[in-house]
Amino acid sequence: RALDTIEDDMTAFKTSSEKINYLQNFYRVALDSDNWSLNGVGEADEARLLQEFWRVSKVYKTLSSPMQRVVRDITQRMGQGMSEYVEKDLGQGTNTIEDWNKYCHYVAGLVGIGLAEMFVESGCESNLVNNKTLANSMGLFLQKTNIIRDYLEDFVDGRAFWPQQIWKQYAKDLGDFSKQPNSPQSLSCLNKLISNALNEVPDSLSFLENLQNPNVFRFAAIPQVMAIATLDKLYNNPDVFTGVVKIRKGTACKLILETNNINDVKVVFSDFAKSILTKISPHDPIASETRIVCNKIIGLTQGVQRRRGLAGISFFNLWKFIFPITLAVVGVYYFQNYI
Length: 339
Known about the structure:
By secondary structure, this protein is mainly alpha-helical. About 65% of the residues lie in helices and about 0% in strands. The chain has 17 helices and no strands. Helix 2 runs antiparallel to helix 5, helix 13 packs parallel to helix 15 and helix 13 packs across helix 17. The C terminus is likely disordered.
């Protein structure tokens, strides 16, 4: 979160070199120092995080050496990766799909990889979980969802990430979509990006299937079900081009409470994949592409049993939701809020 705040602030640093220096050396300077802080960067709680980062460093130093190694390594790689994009002209987005994937890897895929390593190092999960490809896809799925949703905000800020390789098939300028949000070209471009993001789902489900610890599972799974719910809300939705589209808070709460095992997750993914299928226009040039990926998701979730919901759960048993919800809130906050 601290690295993201430094990366996201477009006005606090006098030069790009100054920002790059902070990003590239954060793992060494901020983590190792007993009193490191940074003022004037970010807003509200994020600014306070940097101002009082010594508190984070204090906790970091209480971790075991293997856990510290993971945090330090991932922080170094994230900072280095983020610095590659500081001086790039992103007013019209990233250049290629590969660039888009690379950026998402640096800011979110590495988080997934780091978390997987920490799950194993802590003894909460077996080494089977430490699959970097699957963990990376978990992060990419979340970050791509955020980038698709944040089209307008990022464009206005002059730092967009929609890949030109995709959107230039539908418009000459990235801002054209906000001028004609209901046009077939705008919606088709949006749907193309969503279909791309949905291709991360098979790996995401495979990663979740390997988790055995219930609390770790909920921590990892809840942001994923939030993401598929968000993509369903974004699909073919012209409001993406004029504001920020989010799922209802009631829906988010329901997903949090009902995401307890892989069966629950597969039900959610199946339901939202089917929902997207119902929205596909036969006139959309990428209709077949979206159908293929949605049907693939549905195929991976066949045989799941419908959840019973919260009806009939005793008051005594509700305690089991408190800890997972706390973990979920932390996870969802890191990957940005969906609600």
